[in-house]
Every structure is written in C-alpha cells, then in structure tokens.
Amino acid sequence: MAELEWVEVTTIGDLLVRAAATWPDNEALLIAGDRRTFADILARAEEAARSFLALGLKPGDRVGILMPNCHDFVTIEFACAMLGMPFVPINARYKAYELSYVLRDAELAAVVTTDVIVDYVDFAGLLAEATVDRPPALKHLILLGTSTREGFLDRAAFEAAAAGATNEQVHYLRESVTVRGEAMMMYTSGTTSQPKGCVISHEALVRVGIEQAIRWELHDKTRFWNPLPMFHMGGISPLLAHMYVGGFTITQTYFDAEEVLFLMESERCTFAYPTFPTITQTLVNHPKFDETDLSTVVLVNDTGQEDSLRFVQAKFKDAAVVTLFGMTETCGGVSWGGPQDPLDKRMTTGGLPFRGTRVRIEDPETGEEQPVGVRGEITVRGPGLFSYYHNDPEKTAEAYRGGWFHTGDLGVVDSEGRLTFLGRLKDMLKVGGENVAAVEIEAYLMTHPAVKIAQVVSVPDEKYLEVPGALIELVDGKHVTEEELIDFCKGTIASFKVPRYVRYVTEWPMSGTKIKKFQLREALLAELGIAAE
C-alpha cells in the first residue's frame, strides 16, 4: 500500500502560536529595517487582542485594516484571528467613495489605520472623509502612529487599553475559533459594480498556505522577498505559508527597485516573489540588476506568457521561475509550478493543482466538461475556496452553479493535469468573426525589446465589430513609434490580431496589483470619440 499523506489544518491564530512555540527566535518578518521574530509577532498580537477586548469588541465583530505594508498590519491581522474577529484588509488605493461603501457593506465594528503617508495618501484623512455619515456599526477608528487626530483613538490610548484584559482571556477565545469560521473578508473589484466581499474561512487560508509551502519546498531557512501589498491575497497567503515552516519574510512599505536589489543581495534572499509584470519588469530592467549578486535566489514567482517568463528565467539564471493560477476567491492559488518541474512545463503551464483541489474545464455555452487539450472555462472544487459573497446570495449561487466555482477564466489542462491560464472569458475580442484572446496579442507585443508591459483592449469598429487597441509602457530609455510597433506585428501574427491603435502609458490605473483594463478602454474610447456600449 502506498504511503498515505494527511493535512493538519488549524486556525490562523493557532498557526502563529505554533510558529512561536516551534521557532520563537527565528527571524519572521523584516519591514523598513525592523526585524521581528515569531515570538515578537505573537507578543504584539496578544497585546492588541487585549486592547480590542477592553474596548468592547467581541468574536464575530469585523475589523477593517487600512494600511500599507507595516508591522502593525500583521499585528492587527493576527490579533483579530485569535479572537475570532474577521479582519477586512482594505485596498490602500480606495478613495473615500469606495471606502465608505466597504465600511457599511462589511458592517465594520472598528477600523485600524496609520499616519504613515504612502503615495501622498493621508489614510486617516481619507477615513475621516468616508465617515462623515458614520455607519451605525462602527464603534472605533484607531490611528496607530505617532500623531493624534480628533475622532480617532491614538496609539497610546489603544496600547493602554490592553491593561483591561488578560492573555488568558485572549487564548480562551482563540481555542474556541473554528476552522470553518470566517477569518477574513477580502473585497475583490469588478469592472462595472461595487467590490464584492469574499468571506474566507481559516481552513481555506491555512490549507492553501500549507500547500504553497509544500509546492515551493519551503523550510525554516527560506528567506522570502515579497513586495505585494498585505491587503492583497498575494501578501497574506504566502505569509501563512512561511509561518507554517518557520521561514523569513522581507517586504517594504512601498516598492523601490533599487532598494529591493540591495535587500535581496544583503539579506541573501532565496525566494523572490515579484509575481506581477508591473513589478517584475521594473526589477529586471533596472540598471543595477545585472551587477547585483542574486546567486542565493533559487526560486522566483512570476505571471505572464511564455516569452515573458523565459525572459525572466534568463535574468534569474540560477533560479527556477514558476507561475500559477489563482485569484482572491481561491486564496491566491489553485495550481502552481514547482522548482523540480521541467523547464518547459514551468514556462508554459501554471503547474499541477494543489492536493484536494479539482479542476474541470467547461464549455462556457453548454456547461459540458471539455477533454484534455481543449480550452474552456476553468471551474474549481476544493478546500481552498471562499465561502460566499457577502450580502449577495445571487452572485454566490451563480459562481457556484453545479457545485463548481466558475472562475470566469479561460484555460486548458494537459495530459498530466497541469493547468494553463489563457485569459479572461470577458477579455476576448471578436474581430470580423474571429475570436481573439487579448493575452495572445499582449504576449507577442512584449517580445519587442522596447516594450515593458502591454495591455490590449477592444475598440468598436463598424466593419469588424471590434479591433484591438494596445496600451504600452516602454522600457526606460527605449523608444518605438506606433507605426513601428504595428509593423512589428504585421506578417508575424494574424492580421486580425494586429493592433489598430497604439497608445503609451507611464502610469497604470491599478486595483491592488492588477491593471484596471476597463479604465484603459474608457480613456482610449474617449480619446477616439467613440461611445462605450
């Protein structure tokens, strides 16, 4: 009989207690020069949890976190998890309108923010603006920093409140938290409506973290650089993976490529996690990249098409570059490449699904399962899925129809079960009757040496119904004209895939780490004087 495997799932609070008991003095987290061990993280989370209890918060109360990457974010996240209070990471790019919606929709009992100014954003000022008409459920606005502000509980007052409760009370509550209980609600943005609140259990988050740790071959000597924001699944899920094995995470309050290169070399990083082309391409095209000693890096995570991944693999010559398929609703991961996978598999697929996760490729029109090698909508079952959309049973039922979560993404599986993402179902163009995935055109455009990032949107056309429009960010110091880029495509890719319009972008409209294509399209159509349908 084959040797059997098992999974020991726990809650997020217990995951921290386990790490602090097993590796108390291991470096766990480095942010802005401040190093903390697992024991440090636990002690600070206990103190914050005591403060919450003394302020009258209780299990089931949701707490919003509006901060850039910082130690306070992690402290509040784990304090909430230990008390059975779901935490709600709030996108730091939200404006007052979006923030006001989240405060009410999530029925937040408290929001914790910071006076650290990032990208010229005054978070406390933004919260004050969003709470002029204060939601009835909101009891506390908490400002952790060095300043005070009217209407907010400052750091001194918040920390002083901890004297009103004990660690025994905290851990009594931690021991009663269930793995299927709500750990977090994360809002994921759509293109035409308000963000959707994804309710996610402790089990789903921890299970995906465990599977990531196994797939990536993490251990207690792993030194992991992660630039992704902590309000994003790519910031939260890998932290749990490294906590599961006692690994060390390095991040920054904001991304600066030159600082990152210095950190990766001086901290002897073993795992780099740029993940999104907006970050990866900025890093590998930095003038100091080639002179930086990155020989300790053995694993790199990125996303993109084959040509882009092979370019990154060539830059990180001593490491294995892997990619994935995942989203907020799947706690960041359905499938992932592993460091031992063959090069071609790492460059062309998102790897094998995690243990317990099942993938089914479905015909978008008939709902029938597609055979190996035939594209269709990616649908998923497994322990790492979100529970439901908050306050929206109709969207939940639609997403989970037939007992499978429908991702809205196109994909294909090979004979070994490896999954390849082919683009969004709604990110398809119909050019003169031909179906074209925007991602195909983007992948080819990014083979041009002057193109750093390409995004393709549909432009209405009387003759062809739709034609491609390309938005391009150039590599620093490089130049290519619209005509030259169009000529680059002609004769190499099918004529119906050749962009009819090319525009240049220096700053992308972002939602967390994803580019908001609908805003790019709206701006291009407005410039062309074309009404959006």
Descriptive labels:
alpha/beta, 29 strands, seven-stranded mixed β-sheet, 17 helices, about 525 residues, single chain
Molecular structure report:
The chain has 533 residues and is α/β, with parallel strands linked by helices. Helix content is 32%, strand content 25%. The strands form eight sheets. A seven-stranded mixed sheet has the order 2-1-11-10-12-13-14, with helices on both faces. Strands 4-3-5-6-7 form a five-stranded parallel sheet, with helices on both faces. It has a four-stranded antiparallel sheet with strand order 18-19-21-22. Strand 28 and strand 29 form a beta hairpin. The longest helix is centred in the first third of the chain and has 17 residues, at 38-54. The mean pLDDT is 93.
Number of helices: 17
Read across the widest sheet, the strand sequence of neighbours is 2-1-11-10-12-13-14
The global form is globular
Instruction: Name the beta content range.
Output: 15-25%
Helix percent band: 25-40%
Number of strands: 29
Radius of gyration: 23 Å
> In angstroms, what separates the terminal alpha carbons?
60 Å
